[in-house]
Amino acid sequence: MKTLAILLLCSLAVICLTSGKSYTAECSMLVCLFVEREHASTVVRQKRAAAELSLHQLESLREVCEANLACENMMDTDGIIAAYTAYYGPIPY
Question: Which domain holds residue 67?
C-alpha cells in the first residue's frame, strides 16, 4: 500500500514538472502535497490497536453487535473486535 502511494506521488510530481506550466510558489502542486506533522496528525486519524480501547468503548461495540444475531454469535466465538469489524467495518474510534 505504501509503495502504491509513493508511486502515485512520484508520478504526480513528474506530470507536474513536465507539463510545462508555471506555478507560483504558493500554488505549487508539490508544496501543497506536503504539510507539517502537527497539521497532518489533526487531519489524519491514527489507527488504534484493540488493546487501546476502553471498557466503555468495548461495551458500546458489544451493544451494537448484539442487535444483529449473526454478529452476536460471532462475538461469542471470535471476540467483539472481530465480530464488529466483520459486520460493521472498521471501529469508528
Answer: 52-92
